Amino acid sequence: MPHLIITTRTGEEHQMEGESGRSLMEVLHRADVGDIRALCGGCCSCATCHVYVDPEFYAILPPMAFDEKELLDSLEFRRPNSRLSCQLPIGPGLENLRVTVAPEE
Fold it and tell me: What is the 3-state secondary structure (H, E, C) of the chain?
């Protein structure tokens, strides 16, 4: 299980283990960390799981699908390293993944 480092909207840092095969959104929501609302349940239709991925990890993540890009493009707080945590599978290569929960839209 990869070790994850999550910074909340208030600047608190949480360290946790991420279960391989789950999405980052599922891990954060189940642990009640970062105020991830996940209103759509991971269907990539609401953007309430918006996070900023540490640039060190951004390039090794799966490519962004059209739906995710469209949702992110509609957000006020989008950055070049924005992703939806429901679209980020936890697995090998993500040891010490760092993300920051984006401001609520």
Answer: CCEEEEECCCCCEEEEECCCCCEHHHHHHHHCCCCCCCCCCCCCCCCCCEEEECHHHHCCCCCCCHHHHHHHHCCCCCCCCEEEHHHCECCCCCCCEEEEECCCC
